[in-house]
UniProtKB/TrEMBL annotation:
This is CRISPR-associated protein Cas5. The keyword Transmembrane helix applies. It is a multi-pass membrane protein. It comes from the Bacteria. Gene3D superfamilies: ABC transporter involved in vitamin B12 uptake, BtuC. Belongs to the binding-protein-dependent transport system permease family. FecCD subfamily. GO terms for cellular component: plasma membrane. GO terms for biological process: siderophore-iron import into cell. It is found in: Cell membrane. Its main location: membrane. It comes from Faecalibacterium prausnitzii. GO terms for molecular function: transmembrane transporter activity. The chain crosses the membrane at residues 6-27, 48-69, 84-103, 110-129, 135-153, 173-199, 234-259, 271-290, 296-317. The keyword Membrane applies.
Length: 322
């Protein structure tokens, strides 16, 4: 009965996402003019696909990360990928300048971001996980320390760099769907699909892993290996989404907890689906608001950050009361 209700709720969420997609693709479009219609579709389609991909990556990674840490008010941004992204772009602008190949070419920037963040994720969240005797809390502490470390270096570079370069850099550090490269979308889908395929067995064991280490081991699960691989997968998903559109720190916290509160289940197949659908609705609705109401004056990441901060306080207060 509970499963049937959740399937109905997920169907409602899917219809809401489809409605948001239709609204985003049709609001303000001049259907009577064929050239303007074709131009609008050519501009909006890549942005819509980018939002769907970003929601899929962050939504699924957030649920998995919360289940691994066994805490529903943590977010994958604690792994330090957002700050590493900011540091990479700041270093490029500081060393090579805003007119350099890496700063101008979106494909090259995406490749460099993904390569560096993927390498850091592999070293830290695979190797160090073994070195810390498979302690998830140690890994989380390492991620928090690295976040501060990357932020300190990035702040130092921005203080001594040219002011004009800094002004140009600021637009690069804000998550944006305005200028999305189609080639990046294809590569992002390929990376996410490859990671999901590689870790498919661990994903299938999520319901068992959340029972606890002792129970999972008793049921025949290689707990430490599964957790290590899932952490690596989460980091690669967040790295891909961040490299594609920029940092969206609070999005994962919002949509993962909305999914948990809306579905009230421990089945990860349903929770991940709900989180992804909530992410799509939030991003598409937010971008529609940015373009049609605020006329691009405020990026969607600002609304997500403010809303995420308020929602985080709400979660803290309600959990303490509970």
């Amino acid at each position: 009965m509970k499963t049937h209700k959740n399937h109905l709720r997920l169907l409602i969420l899917l219809l809401l996402v489809l409605l948001a997609c239709v609204g985003y693709m049709t609001v303000g479009v001049h259907f009577e003019n064929q050239k303007l219609f074709a131009y609008a579709m050519r501009i909006r389609t890549p942005k819509l696909i980018a939002m769907l991909i970003t929601a899929f990556a962050i939504g699924s990674a957030s649920i998995v990360f919360q289940s691994i840490i066994n805490n529903t008010i943590v977010t994958p941004c604690l792994l330090g990928m957002d700050q590493l992204y900011s540091l990479i772009h700041t270093a490029v602008f500081f060393v090579a300048g805003s007119g350099s190949f890496l700063a101008v070419n979106a494909n090259a920037a995406f490749a460099v971001d993904l390569a560096i963040m993927g390498a850091v994720a592999t070293v830290i969240y695979s190797y160090l996980f073994r070195k810390t005797n498979h302690n998830v809390l140690y890994v989380l502490l390492i991620g928090t320390v690295l976040t501060s470390f990357f932020s300190s270096i990035q702040t130092t570079l921005t203080r001594v760099m040219d002011p004009n370069e800094y002004d140009t850099l600021l637009t690069d550090l804000v998550a944006s769907f305005s200028n999305v490269n189609s080639a990046i979308l294809v590569l992002s889908v390929a990376v996410l699909a490859l990671v999901a395929f590689a870790f498919r067995k661990e994903l299938a064991l999520l319901d068992v892993l959340t029972l606890g280490k002792d129970q999972a081991i008793n049921l025949g699960v290689d707990y430490d290996r599964c957790i290590r691989r899932l952490l690596l997968g989460v980091t690669l998903y967040i790295a891909t989404a961040t490299a594609m559109v920029g940092p969206l720190a609070f999005l994962g916290l919002i949509i993962a907890n909305l999914s948990r509160q809306f579905l009230r289940t421990y089945r990860h197949s349903q929770l991940i689906t709900g989180s992804v659908l909530f992410g799509m609705a939030v991003l598409i609705g937010g971008q529609l608001l940015v373009e049609r109401v605020f006329v691009y004056s405020v990026p969607v990441s600002v609304f997500i950050t403010v809303g995420g901060g308020v929602y985080f306080l709400y979660l803290l207060l309600t959990q303490r009361k509970a």
